[in-house]
Amino acid sequence: MLKHLFKLIWNKKKQNSLLIVEILLSFMVMFAVFAFAVNSYQNYVKPIGIKYEHVWVINYNNTLKTQNSDSLTMFYEGLLRNIKAMPQVVDAGFSSTNVPFSSAHMSGGITVNGKRITYVNQFNVDDNYLNTLGATMLEGRWYNKQDGISKEKVTVINNTLKEKAFGKGSAVGKYFNDYDNKFKIKVIGVVNDIKFDGDYQTVGLSQYNRFDTSAYHWLQRILVKVQPNADAAFESRLYKFMANQMKNSNIEIEHLPNKLVAYNKFTLVPLIILSIVAAFLIINVALGIFGVLWYNINKRRGEIGLRRAIGASGSSVSSQLVSEALILATFSLIIGTFFAVQFPLLNVFDLSAGVYLTAIGFALIFIYFIVLVCSLYPGKQAAAIYPAVALHEE
Amino acid sequence: MISLQNIEKVYRTTNIETLALNNISLDIAKGEFLSVMGPSGCGKSTLLNIMGLLDAPSRGQIKISDQTTDNLNDKQLAKFRNQKLGFIFQSYHLINDLQVLDNVELPLLYRDTTAKERRQLAAEALEKVGLSNRMKHFPTQLSGGQRQRVAIARAIVGRPEIILADEPTGNLDSAMGNEIMEILLQLNQNDGTTIVMVTHDEHMAQKTHRLVRLFDGSQVL
């Protein structure tokens, strides 16, 4: 019977081509939605990598008139000492503007054994950064004062960059070059992956560089880890302190938990939009399948009557129509799967093959489910056709 | 072979009640070739549908091959039709998207037969109606007479005991009509198939063993 149905559909491929294309497009859209969703979910279940609950970010701009680096260094080191001396402060440190859950990004590249690795997030940090954010060293160490006077250029990288550059083995003590391949950089530590772009985004490649004193000219963020009991009154005091210390500077204090919530909302917008588009398309396809099957039944009443006369029961007529719809969907899904598997094969968007394969699986199940649901009722209607009447209509 | 007792068929709508068959009793012997005649709307096709278990009578009893059919459910009726009955229609009812051989195979799809067996039986049936050379054609590539011969091959492929033909020559010219009639007569004589044929053609009806005439739902001869 299956061969018979294949033959019947194949011989009617011209009539069915529109529906095949419609199901194919729906599959591709659902594949995109599921790939996005699976990737977001896989990112979501991974640990965020920092203890952000009681971390505040002070935004400021450098309004000091002096261009003397020593004076600047003295001022900012003093400022940080005073902040750290506050009883509600656990730790604090300077950072470049790309603090966690902000839309600021700085990226560069490195060269490992002559091979360039691009899109490496660059973070300019100080010795307190690791402790302030509560990140964990996986191997080696974080920066200390000795690194400021060392002749050798050293760096700390995240685990993802370590695996990309050096594989599964240890990276501490190994070297890579800058992007232009001009100088060597020694890896002194590997820190755990931190989801800087919120819960749903993929962890990128990260390199943490200890800034030198000249960076005080342009650094604009202080990360402050506070005690759990730090309240609005303390926040107000901290604000006033900063405002007094840095006249004419725009001071703003943000809380990392709030920034995370805002950032997550921002990153979910494309998924929501894609889902809405997909939902409309699916409704369209569902109505299309429903309509085509309904039309087919009315057009094929004579054939249905004949099949009933020569030995088909009502249920076998019904299951034939449902099977036809599923076979039609199979034609589309074979073509769709062919295109979908190109994504992991060609490593499009740098997502893991598992994400794509899971998305293909979900999209297949979803489309089959839609087709099944939409064909059940027309199939039932076909089973109710009265053969004696149907055979006399033509 | 077929026994109809006091068959009555009433079609009811909200306002009108139409008596299509009125107290028809008929016994058709095994191997008999019976023709049913009558003016349009007299109930010929309704009678054939009831004999073919495509329609249920409002009253009365049908026995086919000594089996009463009143209590059969949808699946049992379908199986019964598949194994005991073959149908030929005026408008052929071939599936235009399937080749001739696939059309002929259709009744066997609802039986436990292998694809090879189906091919073989369908080829034999087509040979019997003289269409071996048209197996790979589509129905739209055939003449009316050839289409009806395909329909006959489809009716006989399952080797049924009874063939029910509803105006099988109605859409054909006299030469083709005679050809089809010749095939039906041969099936009756050579294979002993019981045939009930509804026709408007007196000339064709004369060739059969017995003629039953209906008028306004009642048997008049």
From TrEMBL, chain A:
<keyword id="KW-1003">Cell membrane</keyword>
<keyword id="KW-0472">Membrane</keyword>
<dbReference type="Pfam" id="PF02687">
    <property type="entry name" value="FtsX"/>
</dbReference>
<dbReference type="InterPro" id="IPR050250">
    <property type="entry name" value="Macrolide_Exporter_MacB"/>
</dbReference>
<feature type="transmembrane region" description="Helical">
    <location>
        <begin position="268"/>
        <end position="297"/>
    </location>
</feature>
<dbReference type="Pfam" id="PF12704">
    <property type="entry name" value="MacB_PCD"/>
</dbReference>
<feature type="domain" description="MacB-like periplasmic core">
    <location>
        <begin position="23"/>
        <end position="233"/>
    </location>
</feature>
<keyword id="KW-0812">Transmembrane</keyword>
<feature type="transmembrane region" description="Helical">
    <location>
        <begin position="355"/>
        <end position="377"/>
    </location>
</feature>
<dbReference type="InterPro" id="IPR025857">
    <property type="entry name" value="MacB_PCD"/>
</dbReference>
<protein>
    <submittedName>
        <fullName>FtsX-like permease family protein</fullName>
    </submittedName>
</protein>
<keyword id="KW-1133">Transmembrane helix</keyword>
<dbReference type="GO" id="GO:0022857">
    <property type="term" value="F:transmembrane transporter activity"/>
</dbReference>
<comment type="similarity">
    <text>Belongs to the ABC-4 integral membrane protein family.</text>
</comment>
<feature type="transmembrane region" description="Helical">
    <location>
        <begin position="20"/>
        <end position="38"/>
    </location>
</feature>
<dbReference type="GO" id="GO:0005886">
    <property type="term" value="C:plasma membrane"/>
</dbReference>
<feature type="transmembrane region" description="Helical">
    <location>
        <begin position="325"/>
        <end position="343"/>
    </location>
</feature>
<feature type="domain" description="ABC3 transporter permease C-terminal">
    <location>
        <begin position="276"/>
        <end position="387"/>
    </location>
</feature>
<dbReference type="InterPro" id="IPR003838">
    <property type="entry name" value="ABC3_permease_C"/>
</dbReference>
From TrEMBL, chain B:
<dbReference type="GO" id="GO:0022857">
    <property type="term" value="F:transmembrane transporter activity"/>
</dbReference>
<dbReference type="InterPro" id="IPR017871">
    <property type="entry name" value="ABC_transporter-like_CS"/>
</dbReference>
<dbReference type="InterPro" id="IPR027417">
    <property type="entry name" value="P-loop_NTPase"/>
</dbReference>
<dbReference type="GO" id="GO:0016887">
    <property type="term" value="F:ATP hydrolysis activity"/>
</dbReference>
<comment type="similarity">
    <text>Belongs to the ABC transporter superfamily. Macrolide exporter (TC 3.A.1.122) family.</text>
</comment>
<keyword id="KW-1278">Translocase</keyword>
<keyword id="KW-0067">ATP-binding</keyword>
<dbReference type="Pfam" id="PF00005">
    <property type="entry name" value="ABC_tran"/>
</dbReference>
<dbReference type="GO" id="GO:0098796">
    <property type="term" value="C:membrane protein complex"/>
</dbReference>
<dbReference type="InterPro" id="IPR017911">
    <property type="entry name" value="MacB-like_ATP-bd"/>
</dbReference>
<dbReference type="GO" id="GO:0005524">
    <property type="term" value="F:ATP binding"/>
</dbReference>
<keyword id="KW-0547">Nucleotide-binding</keyword>
<dbReference type="InterPro" id="IPR003593">
    <property type="entry name" value="AAA+_ATPase"/>
</dbReference>
<keyword id="KW-0813">Transport</keyword>
<protein>
    <submittedName>
        <fullName>ATP-binding cassette domain-containing protein</fullName>
    </submittedName>
</protein>
<dbReference type="InterPro" id="IPR003439">
    <property type="entry name" value="ABC_transporter-like_ATP-bd"/>
</dbReference>
<feature type="domain" description="ABC transporter">
    <location>
        <begin position="2"/>
        <end position="220"/>
    </location>
</feature>
